[in-house]
């Protein structure tokens, strides 16, 4: 064992200071011996603990020289600190000179216990952690508080992207959250970063601790306490998940009832909406956030709510299918300027969400009363469907910006349109290059070769060659409005039908 490991003991931490001879704290330590004075010869790898202060600094110097000659581990002095000359001597001899105002015999006993039973420290810490967290449901904030008190090091709870959920940690970004195993990361300052996953079945949350250079020798002890406390975090997450899913099912069912094509919601439905804090009166502007099917919408609802609040958007957001359905309610019919301001804020929300989510966002127009809520949500859903195929708009669309495209989308939903669209564009399927997507983007860009090239990430000459090839294969003239409209609708329908 090394002296630094003893210095990391909880009873020594903060009670014992290294005055000088720091270079020797990583030297071997085999025994700890009490001494009444500077007489006697220290043993090799032995820490001399004086039980009372020495009456002269020259005696400290004498003891330091004897320790250096014998290869001792160091000297612990109680009471007042020695003169600067003794410290300089300890540095020159590389003999650790320690001082403490605590009871030296208690420190000695704890050090001897560690030397005699090295695993006892870890077992004691594990037992203390188990007693502290027990079988109770503790939120992450309380778990962090318990661990900080027991380990005396910074502790934090991290999410599945390394962000802080509770506590403070300067090296949180060093945790490799993609690897669901306990981790140890050596820091540049000599410290250690420890992380233990709370698996649910995937590591959605991590419990991490940051040990400084002096605490690093106790990394095995702290790692064991993290493993115990991770179980407490997991229990809380499971209980919280059950509650979130129950609430999500309730909200989703209520939303489904509100969106049913009925003339007027009944008293029971209005009461349920009021209990949920949803306003049915006033003017509503719907929004729809679509995400891939694999996204856990229940777990990420709070992320959506935080993004809305960050842009001062007071909106309802409900887990609904593959994404979230929501709306903003105004007391009176909003002016065009207020709608544009809301749209700009929702675009900022969308940009924020797309940092971590492959999300499409659509916004409806203002509609009044409960039946208007269903109408604006339907418009927002249509806009989100269109946004999913429009990279050029940043996958964000507001119905007011769509104009005729909203009406055309309704036409493409007939049972006969999809087969006709596929048959019309069939000659393009076997040609090299994605000619159908090129056609759609080209018509979206109002026949601009430069803009089409930017969206597709190709040279404008490539776009020109593809457009010429499309006209040749389909035997059409893209300068004719009627043919452009038919092809635009067909291309949109085929692209939307793709997986």
UniProtKB/TrEMBL annotation:
Entries under InterPro entries matching the protein: CdaR-like_regulators (IPR051448), CdaR_GGDEF (IPR041522), PucR_C-HTH_dom (IPR025736), PucR_C-HTH_sf (IPR042070)
Signal peptide: none
Domain CdaR GGDEF-like, residue spans: 265-386
Location of the PucR C-terminal helix-turn-helix domain: 435-493
Pfam families with a match to the protein in the record: GGDEF_2 (PF17853), HTH_30 (PF13556)
Top-level taxon in the UniProt lineage: Bacteria
Family under the similarity heading: Belongs to the CdaR family.
Protein name (Swiss-Prot/TrEMBL): PucR family transcriptional regulator
Source species: Amycolatopsis ultiminotia
